[in-house]
Design brief:
cell cycle; cell division; cell membrane; 0% strand; mainly alpha; 126 residues; rod-shaped
Length: 126
Amino acid sequence: MAQNSTARQMPAVPTREYKGNPRQQTVHKTQSDAQRVAFSNMEKSFFCFIGAISLVLMIMLVSSQVELSNSSQFLQNINSEITAIQTKSSDLTQEVNELASNDRLNGIAKKNGLDLSESRIRNVTK
């Protein structure tokens, strides 16, 4: 079987040899070998300022979330009170309508010896 390898088909690239003084050759240091530069006071102050601002914003965010939660709870309490008052109001309205019904009033009138005379009733309209 014949293997058609592209690595064998590529021509070899000639390498250059450095003919200078070995002392003049520069050695490239990687970043881990290089000496790190210390932060200046201005940079330290800037990073502290950014950190302080971030801390203040985080505290404000948590505070606003707590305030929002408290306001939401207060609103739910008010809504439940409104619902209870509306229910009580509708119950009282129904009770007033039952107590003011014509049948009930006629029954009480007959019990007390009163009679209803149609000739003495006047309808007033506006």
